[in-house]
Amino acid sequence: MKITTKGQVTIPVEIREKLGLLPNTEVEFEIVGKAVRMRKVRRAGRAGRRGKSIVERLRGRGSVRMSTDEILALTRGDR
Predict the structure, then answer these.
(1) Which of 21, 26, 51, 77 has its CA 20 to 30 A from that of 70?
(2) Higher pLDDT, 70 or 49
(3) Residue 13: helix, strand or coil by DSSP?
(4) Alpha-carbon gap, residue 59 to 53, rounded angstroms
(5) Can you give the pLDDT at residue 59?
(6) Greatest CA separation found in the chain?
(7) Tens digits of per-residue pLDDT, 24-67?
């Protein structure tokens, strides 16, 4: 693997999948002896914030009262 003139390298797909490195994932680099360690940045309190805000915005917006089973039957075409 070579470093481009812009200092970029391609992380092999097997490594990206194993570590959950998706597009726009922030990473940090650390020099350890004569090696470089790269790790995913973990922001305190940030995990799950996007999901929570989406749920909060959608909560109470449903206009039809249906059970989970009824909704699943509709989405599966089980009428």
Answers:
(1) 51
(2) 70
(3) helix
(4) 10
(5) 81
(6) 64
(7) 889 999 999 999 999 988 766 555 667 777 888 888 777 778 88
Question: Residue 47 has what pLDDT?
Answer: 55
Angle at 56 between CA 70 and CA 22, to 5 degrees: 90
Q: Where are the domains of the chain?
A: 13-76
3-state secondary structure of 19: helix
Cβ pair 40, 60 in contact under 8 A: no
Residue 67 corresponds to which tokens in the numbers above?
């059970």
Q: Is 36 helix (H, G, I), strand (E, B) or coil?
A: strand
Say what the pLDDT of residue 32 is.
96
Distance, in Å, from the CA atom of 74 to the CA atom of 64, rounded to the nearest integer, reads 13
Give the tokens for residue 71: 């909704």
Burial (CB < 10 A; 0-12, 13-18, 19+), residue 16, is: middle
Nearest Cα to 39, choosing from 27, 48, 50? Answer: 27
